[in-house]
Amino acid sequence: MESQNVLIAFGLTLFAGLATGFGSALAFLAKRTNTKMLSAALGFSAGVMIYVSFVEIFPKAKEALVAELGEVGGCWVTVLAFFAGIVLIAIIDKLVPSFENPHEIHRTEEMDMPELAEKFNKLYRMGLFTALAIAIHNFPEGLATFVSALRDTRLGVAIALAIAIHNIPEGVAVSIPIYYATGSRNKAFAYSFLSGLAEPVGAMVGYAILSSFFNDIVFGVLFAAVAGIMVFISLDELLPTAREYGQPHLSAYGLVAGMLVMALSLLLFL
Questions:
Q1: Structural domain count, the chain
Q2: Alpha carbon distance 254, 234 (integer Å)
Q3: What is the C-alpha end-to-end distance of the chain, expressed in Å?
Q4: CA gap 260, 210 in Å, rounded
Q5: What is the pLDDT of residues 2-60, one digit of tens each?
Q6: Residue 167: which domain range?
């Protein structure tokens, strides 16, 4: 049963990571970015991640840690792990320059300018660095999805879907500059696809390191950190990008819809 759970968790993590490839394909199929849809979708993803972090993941982490460390110790460790997750992802985000940061998304039509085609080397370098940056960001996201799915499959499914939506515009950010630099859709798609593989790799590396001493304390710390990571991603990346792409209210509507869908899905499985 445990090996089956590991396979399911890995499959969900792989699905979330490979959404970057889906984003790359969409960039070539659509001449213009559907900014309203993208805004609502990113808001929806943020709603799912924020709701599940505070309503489901954080309480479960606290419950596991309190059972092992007592009321006071468990609460302190839960809060510290939560903010440690925020600090971790914030440091990773800070180390990636904004020009190459995958979360500094640009519309495909903004990139579709004749003068960009003349700057092959710069564009190619930008695409490669973006792919590398996405791989770095996806590593902890992969571990977050994997740990969540390992503990609770329904949680894993919700988080995998939210992160997959979050990864789609990242695929666009990788593929567009590489395509204009090389003229090759295949090469652009390949780099985008490979950058998404960092998520399942992150899951496997994390699990390989932690599996030998995985217990309720390790689970609780990881789960609380996962909640912090997802809240930071939502507030720092998803919502600002969603507002930038569409009318101000669209991202808010998507956020509420994401929370509602997540709430209903949790109630249906009570």
A1: 1
A2: 12
A3: 22
A4: 34
A5: 667 788 888 888 888 888 888 777 666 655 556 677 778 778 878 888 988 898 889 98
A6: 2-268
